[in-house]
Fold each of these.
Amino acid sequence: MNRRATIKDIAEQAGVSAKTVSRVMNDEPYVRDDIRERVKRVAAALDYHPNRNAQGLISSRTFLIGLTYERPSPSYVVDLQRGALERLAGERYRLVVLPFADAREDPAGLVALLRSAMVDGALLAPPSCDIPEVLDALDNSGIRYARITPGTMLERGSCALLDERAAGRAIAEHLVQLGHRRFGVILGHPGHAATSARLAGYRDAFAAAGIAPDDIRIERGDFTFHSGEAAAHRLLARTDRPTAILAQNDDMGAAALSVARALGLAVPDAVSIAGFDDADIARLCWPQLTTVEQPVAAIAADATDRLLKQLEGGELAAAITHPHRVIVRGSTGPAA
């Protein structure tokens, strides 16, 4: 078996000290560019791979980034991970996925989880990104963090954003333009800032169109398919059922499609249904779901990039807001 190359081997062949090789491997400053390139060429020729565990023991860094989330739809968390991993490709950091049941009820528990995982930094998805006690504890602990689509305290930490209110208004305006005047709304989880922001956007569109609040029926969900089924049953069983339903994510929108079909209601002829996110399920159900594209993977990648900048140089990058886009498919049509 071939012996694994060491820092000493690289130093001998590159004609530098072992300390210089170590500085290059750790991306430290104060190494001349020509020496850095020579060391990297020798390391590649020797197929050298640094021992990350040993590096962590020496530097007191683990090169681990923790991604926290709770109550997500399956497609949402997959896109979060995909975006973070795409940005970390080729970097020395690894991603640790840390689901947590209820950060709002137990913010100290979430921070304790991050500490026990010995992460250098954290990616905070909703709702933990909007909990001041979580941010305070992380600030005090020295764990750097980036926030994924927060709705409050945007001055704190690095943020990758979506204008949830504007996106909510855009999808509601699409249905208003189709002539709908009687609406049902399936809300997301009350602990997520996006729930109230998207509802505010719907109401902006309704108010601009002169639609009375009494013509809006609101049912509570929690972003899960099951909650969408229950809410859609309550909406569509009414004698004055809505002609259009706005579900605050695609899982609940797909559930509403299923309920309409079970009740014998043609979509979009009898009822139009729209979701939010443009998750895979929006294209897999039938008819395919009209929705708002939220580029979750791109948002997660940008949040990861901002966290890396903090970890590598202490830079706190300005927030970035990603665009939204209404995607019209077969589940919406003119009001009957």
Amino acid sequence: MTAQLIHDHFQNFKRYQIPKAQLIIADIPYNLGANAYGSSPLWYIDGDNKNGESNLAGKQFFDTDKNFRVPEFMHFASRMLRKEPKERGQAPCMIVFCAFDQQPMIIDQAKKAGFKNYINLVFRKRTSPQVLKANMRVVGNAEYALILYRDKLPKFNNRGRMVMNVMDWPRDPNTPKVHPTQKPVPLLEQLIELFTDSGDVVIDPCAGSGSTLVAAENLNRKAYGFEIKKEFCDAYETRMRRAVTVGLPLWEEAQ
């Protein structure tokens, strides 16, 4: 199934008549502002503070980050996530990657949009990007996300195993890195497998590099994404799509 990355803002979704999703995945802006590269070696030329500051010092990741409106995002999600079916175990959900401090605000805005329930996720990295602070304080090696859903528990393909809310952050050596906050395709595959079936629709309204679309296409899901930066749309077509390796996991093929 070919995924589609749309060069437009997700608020304009009505123009494209895309189907409603079983799963929405979004990595929303973290509102880090001028500290986006803080504690990272990228702040300095060649990663060494002796060389002085690089052109990334004091910069935000994108000029669009400060204008991201969570209520409008939640409105989109409430419209584009399919309605809850009557049968159990088939309800949709969304997963929102966010900063730790954003979680209370996102939970509050989600409730206003009809997403009454949540489960928090923590992803544990092997190393920390805050290497410049390693001899000064405890450094962070975690990323955070929220599973948001309306009333019924979402579809859950755990295959009889217990799934913990603290997960390892896998390496992704096979996918080009084209976006500063790009999430690993193996991690996205794990989440997509957990909450969707083959043929279900996955939407990423803040698609960036399109790694969500790659993961969904790998797993035979229908995928749609929105991205307002043309350079990332171009990078998806010229670089990211080469990483697509279609093939269901063995447990799905056996069904």
